[in-house]
């Protein structure tokens, strides 16, 4: 069912500031044309088409609050920052994945001409 979120919110009686903001955003987005809408509705590429994929990162939801409090990247958290036990193993996994991402980007850019 493709219900319009604005109509749905008004029907449910939850209209208010968020709905008004959504209306403004929808109006602004509509001015851009259908190219943006088509790109959004296009969906994710097929799993078999991996030639442009550099890395796939997990959602590090539990590390984000610790990183914000410590004002550090998620992959640089220490026990003193609150990353203890299993969370520290999660930090190490995060480090490996981000290192793989950085190495993938570096490998793809090495062949580019430099000014």
Order of helices and strands: HHHHH
Biggest pleated sheet: none
Structural class: mainly alpha
Overall number of strands: 0
* Radius of gyration, CA atoms, in whole angstroms: 21 Å
- Percentage of helical residues? 40-55%
Q: What's the overall geometry?
A: extended
Distance between the termini: 52 Å
Provide the low-confidence segments as ranges. none
Report strand %.
under 5%
What value does the average pLDDT take?
75
Number of helices: 5
Quick rundown:
The protein has 115 residues and is mostly helical.
Give an account of the 3D structure.
The protein has 115 residues and is mainly α. It has 5 helices and no strands. The protein is extended and about 50 Å long. 5% of the residues are buried. The model has no long low-confidence stretch (mean pLDDT 75).
Keywords:
115 residues, 53% helix, mainly alpha
